[in-house]
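Subject: sequence -> structure tokens, single chain

Hey, anyone have a minute? Need the predicted structure for the following. Not urgent.
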Amino acid sequence: MKGSQDRIIIFDTTLRDGEQSPGASMDVHEKVLVAKQLEILGVDKIEAGFPITSPGDFDAVQAIAGEIEKSSVVGLCRAKDEDIQAAWGAIKDARKPCIHTFIATSDIHLKYQLRMSQDEVLKSVEHSVSLSKSLCADVEFSAMDATRSDWDFLADVYTVAIASGAGTINVPDTVGYTNPQEFFNLITHLKKKVKDIEKAVISVHCHNDLGMAVANSVSAVMAGARQIECTINGIGERAGNTSLEEVVMIFNVRKDLYGVTSNIDTTQIYPTSRLITHITGIPVQPNKAIVGANAFAHESGIHQDGYLKERSTYEIMTPEAVGLGTSSLVLGKHSGKHALSKRLEQLGYRLDDKDVKKVFKRFKEIADKKKEIFDEDIEAIVLEEIYRVPDKYVLKNIVVNSGTVVVPTATVQLAVDNKLIQEAGFGNGPVDALYKTIIRMAGFDVELKSFTVKAITGGTDAQGEVTIELTDKGRTAVGQGSDPDILVACARALVNAMNRMEFLKTRQRSDAPHL
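Reply:
Had a minute. Here:
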């Protein structure tokens, strides 16, 4: 492979498989925001959703199809006529539509889930791929649970899929069962046994149940695969999917070894990661490769000494390469809108004038409270003010009294469907008083499952970021809020979570199968 310089197709399934992470549901507005950012990132194919599962999913895929200009928009469907027709209905107006159809092929799935014979599966593959091809020029076929399937039967399945019109054949490690050597051998076997394999792109879709999704994907590329299905931050069903940022930077940093490239603008990796974190509420662990808080931090004295003398002694890539700015103090309260706009561009946020004005207004409010404004502060403002859906509940004002000799009291002004209401309440502490009051005002009966607070930047005047998780009758909603006043951040996080819970209550969504 060395010296090859083949291009790897990056197929992002954050909006489909990634959304199946518990608590990661997105509405149409949020999905369109993510899709636009994925296009800026340089993703070749965006799997926008599973249209047959619900009207909401259909609408989201259709909305994305109407917005995306460069990337392919993919609709997932089972090997069933109604699924295929729904997928086509959702993506047909896309500039580059793609139907992605699948059926399980492992003995365990054939026996217990499908209750079909191998011959019946082959006939289903032929029919479903042919129908998809009659509707759409770009068709991908996946054999679900491929890594636990009989290899010779799998080769027959892909042979039928290619003969029926599939331009991409996907080999999913649906339950994260395989390992790099075994997966390499499987791809090699398929290249030898599948008739006309050279007419199709070999794709892989790996899950991380044993922590090997990225390694398995890289191994498959070494064996000849040329499309990787992945998600931002590695989110997804159960333990997640192959992490887009990791595989991309592996090939970027080790060009000498793999000799492959991608269309990804790596400077957009970090902004995209942060957007996904904000919308889903799923945090990235500090030691996460590429985008974790500690990915470019050096604490060891020996490491610090080497780094200060020559960065490459302990950094195999630069933070700038993935869009993580290294400047500390960026702007202050005397800075103008033009300077802020330029910094937003440097951070990877391409906003129109209306959104820049909205960010600038909030920036000035925070600048009056803080001595220093950091990149992280600006980023938090963008995520809070721009990448947010219209809300049922809008926090207007809070006043919280607390101390060693007073009962903690919270007075809250909240707009509910544009109607302003105000109430006061007590609690065991300031946050407890605040939360009990807001929840009572909204008429919610929820349980606060988790509550975390962190400082976005250093110093006593740092912006605080609060992440909470609410549960209500089996539903889970995550909310985030940030502000230099930690109590305001707490209130923002709760209101954000309540709005997400309202969305979940109104959304009719069935459980979706996954690859």
